[in-house]
Design goal:
Fic-like fold, about 375 residues, Arc Repressor Mutant, subunit A, 2 domains, 14 helices
Length: about 375
């Protein structure tokens, strides 16, 4: 028996006492994150949001088996937000469309959600009208049965059968009324309910998971009363997809008690907030670094490559890496790096090493534990 086959199936229940510690941890981390963000200027906040949205778009698609080019996504978001992006990569029309959906939801979190809007968002995910080589219904609720199936042909396992298509319009009208209401419950619980409720209706032939994550983010934005989004749940779900699908399936076969689902959702959101802290730390570190280095003469090439590493490029600074990123000769790279060592911008990790690598120098005397973490990280 599926949950929607029960009378009044959306009267979800949960054990508030069991959730208290999980919700308090999320609220504590939200407070810490926004406290640190208060130290950032407007431009730096935009950069932090752009990085978060980049990961949100990429990983939300990857959960559904769709791999997007992260540099194209980052470039599309940077252009739409009007911020600098050192590594410009022209995005495809498809990626621009997917990014536009995310930014529409972020920028208009406080507007009423309508059937027309959500259908338009779904259509943007499938501009050709095809998904995985098959034609699907686009820009409208499904008119076919929808089964969630895994396994090879002849050995399929049915995980979930969505409500019959003739029920979808009524179920979605109920969902939209609830979504647009001002029910006085914890924002994390409300976000978790929206996610579960929407994917359980499964109103479209495809794109339901990505839309559910966008909608749950919108409710968190409403609670924050901010169009700045600095954390997302998609990257963490992508790391724990099996548990995500297992807990969804278990709850969809349940009796309406969604305590376990909310616990999992809150814990996953808590880890997402830790990841957001890392992004903010990187941006704070970069801001601090350039404040200290503002009076030191550097070439444009040195500035550009340092920015790449300050943005979290996951490689050690070596002459080979520098030459590759700067598209210059190895000799030029060595001169650039040695100049930065002489100016106390870089330090050699192991003096006298046969193949030297370098790290960016931060001044520990001017870095407070409150504002900065993970200083001296070897890039």
């Amino acid at each position: 028996m599926y949950i929607y086959e029960r009378d009044n199936w959306t009267a979800f229940r949960w054990n508030a006492a069991e959730l208290t510690a999980h919700l308090e941890e999320v609220n504590r981390k939200q407070g810490l994150l926004y406290g640190r963000l208060a130290s950032l200027g407007f431009d730096s906040k935009l950069k932090a949001m752009a990085e978060n949205l980049t990961y949100d778009v990429v990983y939300s698609s990857e959960i559904e088996g769709i791999r997007l080019n992260i540099d194209e996504v980052r470039s599309s978001i940077a252009r739409k937000l009007g911020i600098e992006n050192i590594k410009q990569t022209a995005p495809s029309h498809y990626i621009d469309s997917v990014v536009a959906v995310m930014l529409d939801a972020v920028n208009h979190y406080d507007q009423l959600l309508t059937k027309e809007k959500i259908c338009a968002w779904q259509a943007a995910f499938f501009p050709t009208g095809f998904s995985e080589g098959s034609q699907i219904e686009v820009g409208r609720y499904r008119t076919n049965e929808e089964h969630i199936v895994s396994g090879m042909f002849g050995r399929e396992k049915i995980h979930y059968v969505a409500p019959a298509p003739e029920r979808v319009d009524k179920e979605m009208a109920h969902f939209l009324d609830w979504f647009n209401s001002h029910e006085n419950i914890n924002s994390v619980i409300r976000s978790a309910i929206a996610h579960f409720w929407f994917v359980s209706i499964h109103p479209f032939e495809d794109g339901n998971g990505r839309l559910a994550r966008i909608l749950s983010d919108m409710l968190l934005a409403r609670a924050d009363k901010s169009e700045f989004r600095f954390y997302n749940i998609s990257s963490q779900i992508n790391k724990d997809k099996k548990h995500y699908y297992d807990i969804l399936e278990k709850t969809q076969h349940g009796d309406g008690d969604i305590t376990e689902w909310i616990c999992w959702y809150a814990n996953t959101l808590s880890i997402a907030l830790d990841e957001a802290e890392n992004i903010v730390s990187t941006i704070l570190n970069k801001s601090f670094f350039w404040q200290k280095a503002s009076s030191i003469p550097l070439s444009q090439r040195q500035t550009d490559i340092l920015n790449i590493f300050l943005d979290g490029y996951e490689a050690k600074i070596t002459s080979k890496t520098w030459a590759s990123l700067a598209k210059c000769s190895k000799d030029t790279a060595i001169r650039d790096i040695q100049d930065l060592v002489n100016k106390d911008i870089l330090r050699e990790d192991i003096p006298g090493a046969k193949r030297p690598s370098y790290s960016i120098i931060y001044d520990p005397e001017d870095i407070t534990d409150f504002l900065f973490s993970a200083m001296g990280h070897p890039f």
